[in-house]
Amino acid sequence: MTAEFTPTVPDRRLPPVTVRDLPEPPSSMWRIIGPGLVGAGVGLASGEFILWPYIASQVGLVFIWGAAIGILTQWFLNMEIERYTLATGETALTGFSRLWKHWGLVFVLMTLLSNLWPGWVTTSATMVTYLTGGTPRYIAIGMLVVIALGLTLAPVIYTALERVIFVKIALVVTLIVVALIFAITSDAWVSLGRGLTVDATFPVPPLELAVLMGAIAYAGAGGGQNLCQSNWIRDKGFGIGQYVPRLVSPVTGHEEAAPSTGFQFAPTRENLARWRQWWRFANLEQGTTFALVSFVTIALMSMLAYSTVFGREGLANSIAFLETEGQVLQETVAPWFGVLFWVIGALSLFASAMGIVDYTSRLAADMIKTVYARQASESRIYSIIVWAMAAVGVLVLLIGFDQPLILLVLSASFAAVMMFVYSILLIILNRRALPKELKVRSYRLAALVWSVAFFGTLTVLVLIQQAQKLF
Predict the structure, then answer these.
(1) How far is 103 from 108, CA to CA, in rounded Å?
(2) Is the peptide bond before 203 cis (omega within 30 degrees of 0)?
(3) d(CA 439, CA 437)
(4) What is the pLDDT at residue 382?
(5) How far apart are CA 390 and CA 49, in angstroms?
(6) Residue by residue, what is the 3-state secondary structure of the chain?
(7) Tens digit of pLDDT per residue, the chain (471 long)?
């Protein structure tokens, strides 16, 4: 059947895929654990340390069910992004570019405009100043240089990022364990139980709708980061992605020549049996890492905020909130605990900043290599973009610009718009480009329809709100 199989992946705008058998799945899921943790680790930044704890400090834990809904929605999204890559070895952006050549460019530009401002690294640097004093600007500049060096000198870039994120997760778990022993109160556990039922939110406590919906939408990840699950699972060797060389350093790594497009397997009995195993492993990996780690971390960090600063007036929905929470932890538990909170927070946000630079540069390099410069070196393109992002960040910090209002508007709007649009494109791609045995259907198709409706509503609300602020 393999010889007779005609690929179903569209080839009008990009070269056709090659037919190859699906590689054998691993004997144990433990061998492929990683991409979900990277996704959780990169995504656990503002939501983990600022947004959800801020909500808990204002209205308690009555909305914690919203984090569960947001993470579950993103789990379905991530799995449909992974479906295409598992089956073809191509990223979701490449798949979208097969539908219309410039879809990849649209998503990359929105991701760049959302992430070009050095927000996460500045937040990390600010937390360092709570411990050491100094000027956040110069600490952030040093961090940007370290990030760029780390991402361009590591022989295999994904492996280096995975190790950094594993350390971050271990540190956050350490903080949570200490918090469970010394800081989280029994009342927080009772409130958590109530917060996992929607009935607990009626009547609705006073909270800005955009804050709540934004927190639900971006619980776990959000925007362009979800799309990068394609790149991360491919570098980890998931499915047909095993045939695609990994992204390496142009300085210390050895880049292998490879076609810019992917492969497809014939739906033979043997290949479909392997597919079922790969699909089960991929779902378990995402469920037990991305979904579980994201929810547990958000829930427990919210409980910590609830136990320490719930009801305190004048808390800022910004990095200043973390300074107040650390000071309260020093007063109510012990001085060392507030220090631990700031140390782990600073390192956690630094790891997130590294991940944000990585996924933005990966998406851009993959798109340029696949669609516009097929003979170019993806590793070199990646390195150029990494250093360009670092250079822009350093320039912004040296000039001393605050984040302008228009950029705040763009950042708030782009993630919602991106997720709305690529939820629609995933339905089209995974229905049209894959054989009937692999197509998205049933409750997973319904989950994508829900994602379209939810992020479409969020897009409209955010655009209306930001338009009112501007005009």
Answers:
(1) 9
(2) yes
(3) 6
(4) 94
(5) 24
(6) CCCCCCCCCCCCCCCCCEECCCCCCCCCHHHHCCHHHHHHHHHCCHHHHHHHHHHHHHHCCCCHHHHHHHHHHHHHHHHHHHHHHHHHCCCHHHHHHHHCCCHHHHHHHHHHHHHCCCHHHHHHHHHHHHHHCCCHHHHHHHHHHHHHHHHHHCCEHHHHHHHHHHHHHHHHHHHHHHHHHHCCCHHHHHHHHHHCCHHHHCCCCCCCHHHHHHHHHCCCCCCHHHHCHHHHHHHHCCHHHHHCCCCECCCCCCCCCCCCCCEECCCCHHHHHHHHHHHHHHHHHHHHHHHHHHHHHHHHHHHHHHHHHCCCCCCCCCCHHHHHHHHHHHHHCCHHHHHHHHHHHHHHHHHHHHHHHHHHHHHHHHHHHHHHCCCCCHHHHHHHHHHHHHHHHHHHHHHCCCCCHHHHHHHHHHHHHHHHHHHHHHHHHHHHCCCCCCCCCHHHHHHHHHHHHHHHHHHHHHHHHHHHHHC
(7) 555 888 999 999 899 999 999 999 988 878 788 888 888 888 776 667 777 888 888 888 888 888 888 899 999 999 999 999 999 999 999 999 999 999 999 999 989 888 888 877 888 898 899 998 888 889 999 999 999 999 999 888 888 899 998 998 888 889 989 999 999 989 999 888 888 775 544 444 555 666 666 677 777 788 888 999 999 999 899 999 999 888 887 777 666 656 668 899 999 999 999 999 999 999 999 999 999 999 999 999 999 989 988 877 777 666 777 888 899 899 988 899 999 999 998 998 899 889 999 999 999 999 999 999 888 888 999 999 999 999 999 998 898 875 555 555 556 567 778 899 999 999 999 999 999 999 999 999 999 999 999 888 887 877 777 677 666
**Count of alpha carbons within 13 angstroms of residue 25, beta-carbon side:** 19
Structure tokens at 396: 């912004």
**Cα angle, residue 430 at apex, residues 76 and 231 outer, rounded to 5°:** 65
Integer Cα distance of 111 and 415 in angstroms: 8
* 194 token code pair: 């109530």
Structure token pair of residue 21 = 């058998």
| Residue 104 Cα to chain centre, angstroms | 17
Half-sphere exposure for 191 (CA within 13 Å, toward CB): 22
* Amino acid (one-letter) located at 137: R
Residue entry with tokens 């704890």? 53
Asked if residue 161 lies in contact with residue 358, where contact means CB atoms within 8 angstroms, the answer is yes
| Nearest alpha carbon to residue 387 among 151, 147, 97, 148 | 148
Cα 164 → chain centroid: 15
